[in-house]
């Protein structure tokens, strides 16, 4: 046996063990790494406001705190107003449920010539096995829901803490990162950082603009139908549909449909139809154009990046995919050598030979030559 073989086997086993340990640690820390990634992009989003306040003489930590305080107050006020509105509408629906049930029973009796009564329907619902099983499952799921709520609050606290430190200690973080790099690399890192701030801000600007357009459009519809709380519902649809990826559209459209149902059940159908039509208009017309202008990427690239981000990181990947791809594209574009494009008709979509006649011209010449040869005899 060669002398190096035992040492090589030990080294190979050590590398395999290290790889397994690293893979296990990475899977255990995946949730934390995703939270840090979200916090980093959130810090990039508020970086312009914090830097502007710090440039006027305010301490950077205080400026970051004020920005977070303003965002928290706005979010808490909106959630409180929305919660009170939703609670009032639920109470109204519960109080009006007997009238809805009577109108439904009358429609069934008139349409199908039956003799249903509200008392019989209520007794059947109260003593049904489906309701008993649903109550048991709901009681058993209260603990799971409480655990999910506590986990979500802890995740929000983690993201907020990391994003606060990233924004407040941004200059220190950049200095620490540049201190381990040569001067030429330091300039590239700082340039990439500025590009990421600009692209993230542009992406949030586009999302905010789409939220404004969506909110105004849904407000006009709800106000024309006479649905109560139309302004608040318009703001709800605009914010939730734009800033909660994947399921945001369904969450945003469910609440206006519920409120519209309390006014008239047919209004809920109209709201559903409008939500579906507007979503298609936004996906294929509005979003690609706004995203391409604000983050300067092709609409197809934006659409593909969202699909890829969703496949890799789920809802988080869908939210940060466009600013990440825009930053990478802008950074790499500075190092790609470009040349002047040749003056060729094929560049503009013409398929004729450069400098020569096209196919149609050649066919005409050939046909005229044959006609002249037939006329000569």
Can you walk me through this structure?
With 377 residues, the chain is an all-alpha fold. The protein has helices at residues 4-28, 30-55, 60-112, 118-126, 129-168, 170-178, 183-225, 230-243, 248-263, 265-295, 299-313, 315-333, 359-375. α2 packs across α7 (183-225) and α10 packs across α11 (299-313). The radius of gyration is 31 Å and the shape is extended. The relative contact order is 0.07.
Q: Can I get a quick summary?
A:
Helices cover 84% and strands 0% of the residues.
Helices and strands, in order, run as: HHHHHHHHHHHHH
Shape: extended
Mean residue pLDDT: 77
How many helices?
A: 13
- What structural class do the secondary elements suggest? mainly alpha
The helix content, as a percent range, equals over 70%
Estimated share of beta-strand residues: under 5%
Number of separate strands: 0
Q: What integer value in Å does the Rg equal? A: 31 Å
Q: Major beta sheet, specifics?
A: none
Low-confidence stretches: none
The N- and C-terminal alpha carbons lie at a distance of 98 Å
Task: Detail the topology: elements first, then pairings.
Layout lengths: L3 H25 L1 H26 L4 H53 L5 H9 L2 H40 L1 H9 L4 H43 L4 H14 L4 H16 L1 H31 L3 H15 L1 H19 L25 H17 L2
